[in-house]
Structures are given as C-alpha cells and as structure tokens.
Amino acid sequence: MTAITEAAVTQRKGAGGWRWSGRIFLLLLLGFTVMPMIWMFITSLKTGFAAMQYPPQWWPSEPTLENYWRLIDPSGSVGRDFVQYFLNSVWVSTLTTILAVVVAVPAAYAFSRFRFPGRTFLFFAVLLRNMFPAVVFLVPLFILMKALGLVNTHGSLILTYLTFGLPLAIWLLKGFYDNIPVQLEQAARIDGATRFQAFFLIVMPLSTPGIIATSIYSFIGAWNEYIYAYTFLTRHDQMTLPVGIQRFFSENATDWPGLMAATFMMSIPVVVLFLVLQRYFVRALTEGAVKH
Amino acid sequence: MAQVVLKDVVKNYGDVYAVNHVSLTVEDGEFVALVGPSGCGKTTTLNLVAGLIPMSGGTISIGDRDVTDLDPKDRDIAMVFQNYALYPQKSVYKNLAFPLQMRKLPKDEIDKRVQAAAKTLDIVHLLERKPRELSGGQQQRVALGRALVREPRAFLMDEPLSNLDAKLRVQMRSEIKRFHQDLNATIIYVTHDQLEAVTMSDKMAVMNGGFLQQYDSPANVFANPVNMFVASFVGSPAMSLVPLTAVTKGTDVVLASPEGWELPLNAANAKKALSAKSNKVVLGGRHSTIKVHKAQVPGSVPGKVYTVEPTGDVTFAQVFVSGAVVNVSVDPTFLLRPDEPVFIEFDQNRMHLFDGETEMALKLAD
Ligand SMILES: Nc1ncnc2c1ncn2[C@@H]1O[C@H](COP(=O)(O)OP(=O)(O)O)[C@@H](O)[C@H]1O
Ligand SMILES: [Mg+2]
C-alpha cells in the first residue's frame, strides 16, 4: 500500500512537466466550454437594445432581470407558454427516467447474473439501437407513432426516448452488477433471504450510485432532445423546452435576451441535479460499486 | 446440529463435470475437510449442499430432511465464504443481526445473540464499524460471527483462511477447531491446503477432477492412500513416487529400474507387486520412512542428490532416483552436497506400491 503510494508520488514528480501542460490544456478546454454559458447569462441580463449593440457590452450598463420575470409571469403569453413547456419537459424527462430505471435494473441484473440461451445476442441486440444516428429512425418511428395514434402525445416521446435511454441504462447498470460479488447474494440467501430479498436488501442498495448515474444520463438525454420532439409534436401546449423556446425566434426579429434567459432557465434543473448527485456520479464512473 | 448426507451428487456444466457422482456422509458433530487442488469441485460441492446452485443429479439430506429441492434459506445452514462476503453497506452489528432479522427474531433476542457472538469472537469493539474499516483477520472473525449467531444445523466454510497471512492462519485454525469442539458443530470445511485438512478435520474427503478419491480420517488417508493422487497430495513434503518394473526371479520378486538396479521385495510386497494389472509398478515412500546412506547397504538403491534444504531441526533433500525425485529427510549433522551420489533405503514395511496402469494402491487381498 505505502509502496504503491510512494511509487505513485515519485511518478507524479517525474511527470511534473506533463502535469502542467495537462492543466493548461484543461484550463483552455474549460474556457472553451464555459465562455458561451457566461455570455448566455450576460446576454440574458440585457435589454433587447443592449443585446444588439456593437461593440458588445461585456457587462450590461443596465442589468435587468426583466427577461426572467417575463418567462415566469403567468399573466403574460410568454410566461404561460414557457411554464407549460417547462412542465412538459419535466414530465417527459422524469417519466422516461423512471421507466428506464425500472426496466433497466432487473434487465441489467439478469444479463449480469444469469446464463440463458441467447444472452450475448440479446445484449448486443439491445445496444444495436444506439449504433445508428438518431435521425435514421425518425421517419420509421413517426409512421409507427402515427399508426399507434400517438403523434402529438407525450407518450410518443417517452417511448422514443426509452429506445435510446434503456439500452444505455442496461449497459451501465450491468457493469455495476458485474462488480458486485455474487457471494453477497449467496450469503444473504443462506442467511434467510429469498432471491428477491437478497437482490432488494443487499444488491440494490449497493448499486445506488449506478442507478443514480443511469438516471442522470436518461434525464439529460430526454431533457435536451430536439429532433423527435420537433417532429412528433405540433400542438403548442404539448411542446417541450428545446422546441418551445424556438418561439423566441420570430420572422422579423429574434428576442436574444429572452432566448438566453429561457436557455439559462432550461439548464438549471440539469445543473442542480448534477451538483446534488455528482458525488454518486463520480463514484459510479471511477470505482464501480464495491471495492475489492 | 445434524448429519449431512450426499448421495450420488452430480453437477455438470455441459461437458464439464464439476462434481461427479459424489456420495459422502458427514456425521452429526463431525468436522469434515473437503480437500483437493484448485478446480477439483470443492466449492461447487459446498454450494450444492447450501442449495446455491441447482444439482444435475443425486440427493442431499441434512438431519432427517431431504433438502434437495429446498431454497438455501430453508436448509438451516450457515456459510463462511472465502472472500467473507460481508455486506459492505452494513455495520458489523447489522451484518451479524441480518440472519436473525431474516428469521424474524424479536429485537432484544437479536441484540443478545449478536452481543454473545461478538464476545466469543472478541469483536465487540468493532460492532459499529463498516466491513471496509476492518483488517482481513477482523473481517474473517465477523464472517465467522455471522455464521455463529444462528445455531444452524451445519456450518459450511469455503477456504475461510486462505486470504489471511501465515501467522493469522495458524491462529484462526486453532480457533475454528476450538469452536467446533465447543459447539459440537457439524462442519464441512473446504480447503486446498492439505495441512489444514490434516490438522483440523475428523475426516478428510480428498477430491480430484470432480471425483471423490478417498474419505477417511487424516491418519488413515496418510497411512493408506488409495491411489497415487491421494498419496502425492497428502503429506508435506509429498510422497515420492518412482515408476519401476516388477520382475520375478525364481522365487523372488524385484522392482527393476531402467538403469539396471534391482530392489528385492519382501513376501508381502512381492504379492502386492504381482497383483498389478501389468508389470508396471510405482514405488511410493514418505520421507520419514526413507533412509539415506553414503555407501551401498543391502536393499538400497542408487541416487544422486539434487537439492539440500536445511530447516534447522531436520534437513530435507531431494534425490534423483531412476529419473524420479525422491524427498528424504536426514539429521542436520548428516551433511549432503548437491550432485553427491547416495544410496536410498525404503522401509519394506512402510513402503507403498501402486499399479502403474490404474494408479491405484496395490493391496493384499484378505
Ligand atoms: N458456473 C460455471 N460454469 C462453468 N464451469 C464451472 C462453473 N463453476 C465451476 N465450474 C467448473 O467446475 C470446476 C470446479 O470448480 P470449483 O468447484 O469452483 O473448484 P474448487 O472450488 O475446487 O477450486 C472447475 O473446473 C470450474 O471451471
Ligand atoms: Mg473454490
């Protein structure tokens, strides 16, 4: 243990130059990803006139929260729509996530623990869906949804998102269950648990970080999806945020500050989710479920 | 506690027979060691007794109940796993309490039993810790404790000491033995370490390739191994085996080597040698029954020293005899050098003879 740590330390010292160049690279990358977000936020605080000024104001001379009030003020038409889109997005993403997890947990466990005929084939068949670009399925799925009478319902989106989210969720969770020693369940079964109890009381709690990570993936996937939402929904009261905020573009003028405020609001749930759960998320990605 | 009976138990994975028609009775209160090299089917056998995997054939009963089709939870057994399998998210206390909670015991009864088991195993001060905060030896104790709280009909242990360091292993060995004596527990103990099996068990079941080779007391297995596998597996250093040819010379029977030397056999051994399927006979001898001479004496055969390992009390040496390695032990004052020619004398009354074709021990027909 100490020998390993010491070795690691020496190695790190030796690689000091690399470490610094690595940091600079990460810093550049950070700037590259954060700058647009900062600009988005700053723009959202401007008036429509200030937003169009050239040269741009780095910080608005008269910062205003007006754009945000407009979005959440239910008496205005913008506010009514935005709140509706927001709720639609929350509903679709949450339901997609819950369904994905509820189906993926037992499926992943089965793929991990049981040997059954066609197991390998099925597992790759599940992933096949994710090997094609999303648009490939746009027309076939639209026809299918139409035949099912689901066009213009949230059901069409949830079903579609599950076809993306579920394979990923199963794949992620299977990795988790693979890492949980089968002896834990065996011990539980000998200690008096049924198979189901052994799973529910011992294995499931150990896979919590995996379930959380999987949920975040599913949620973000559904939350940001645009193409399908744009195609399947035409009614305004059904639209989700990515489609809905298009109404800030209009034929003659784009309401940039309003659009930026809406976009900023849209990113809040994801960011909050991430901050609250990042502890699990990082653990999920770095160490697996159980240390050996 | 109860008797455990395996009848004609089979477990196969396709063409791989992990357990091949094993029958074996563990008497009430007996400590049986299931021993054999890695991959011989020990864990599979234990898992079958526990009911963790479905059997391909045969029956198992515990006490007076046929448990063949029962779930593990209904077999009333406890198990200690090689990797301990402590529930990582639960404290030591909750690990010990889990089997009792599953059996719906009242809270104060659970507490009483957990405290008692913790006291027995000297882990009271660890009760609030999580398994990952324990050393290997402490985890081992907790695993034992979890088996102990419940007063099951039988204990199953799968290499419980193999992850401990040598010193701790010896200590835990005697503790488990004590635990067996105090509780008068029925224990099936899996190990790949023949020394563990010999020192701890009332009876040892030697397995190889899914087959049960021999089931007897360690003393009997040691003294009368049924075949060459058991002979070379049990005992350290291993029994030496020298393949030779039985030749009848007038009234005498000798074992002849390709190099040309001959070892005359006494009457009993001659009879054994002649009962072999062919004239191929394998001579076996344990180091304690072999004498080493610097000059030829009657009944000795030539060899050449290969390695010399002084241990203080006794010096072990390996000697090449007719192409085979023979383990011998000599007094530390008897100096041997590598490559030195020596003469090896087997004790006619304690030597073993095996059929070179079937590898089975040759016995006198009674
Ligand atoms: N689930 C399984 N699928 C296929 N083969 C297995 C399985 N479990 C065990 N085996 C095989 O059965 C044999 C016995 O295994 P095991 O009982 O674990 O041996 P031991 O515990 O004596 O080391 C081995 O050859 C192993 O490869
Ligand atoms: Mg094993």
Describe it.
The complex is a heterodimer of chains A (292) and B (366). By secondary structure, chain A is mainly alpha-helical. Chain A folds into 2 domains: 2-44; 76-287, Orthogonal Bundle (MetI-like fold). Chain A is built from 14 helices and no strands. The longest helix of chain A has 37 residues, at 77-113. Chain A is globular, with a radius of gyration of 24 Å. In chain A, 31% of the residues are buried. The model of chain A is unreliable at 1-5 and 288-292 (pLDDT under 50). Chain B has helices at residues 42-50, 92-102, 107-120, 136-148, 166-183, 194-200, 218-223, 228-233, 267-274; strands at residues 4-13, 16-26, 31-35, 57-62, 65-66, 77-80, 154-158, 187-191, 203-208, 211-216, 240-249, 252-256, 262-264, 280-285, 290-293, 300-310, 315-321, 324-330, 341-346, 352-355. In chain B, the strands form 4 sheets. Chain B has a 6-stranded mixed beta sheet with strand order 6-7-8-3-9-10, sandwiched between helices. A 5-stranded antiparallel beta sheet of chain B has the order 13-12-11-14-20. The A-B interface holds A 181, 183-184, 186-195, 197, 202, 205-206, 290-292 and B 47, 50, 52, 71-73, 75, 77-79, 81-83, 85, 87-89, 98-99, 102-103, 132, 146, 150. Bound molecules: adenosine-5'-diphosphate and magnesium ion (MG). Adenosine-5'-diphosphate is lined by residues 13, 16, 18, 36, 38-44 of chain B.
Primary descriptors:
heterodimer; A: 292 residues; mainly alpha; MetI-like fold; 74% helix; 0% strand; globular; disordered C terminus; B: 366 residues; alpha+beta; six-stranded mixed sheet; five-stranded antiparallel sheet; 20 strands; binds adenosine-5'-diphosphate; binds magnesium ion
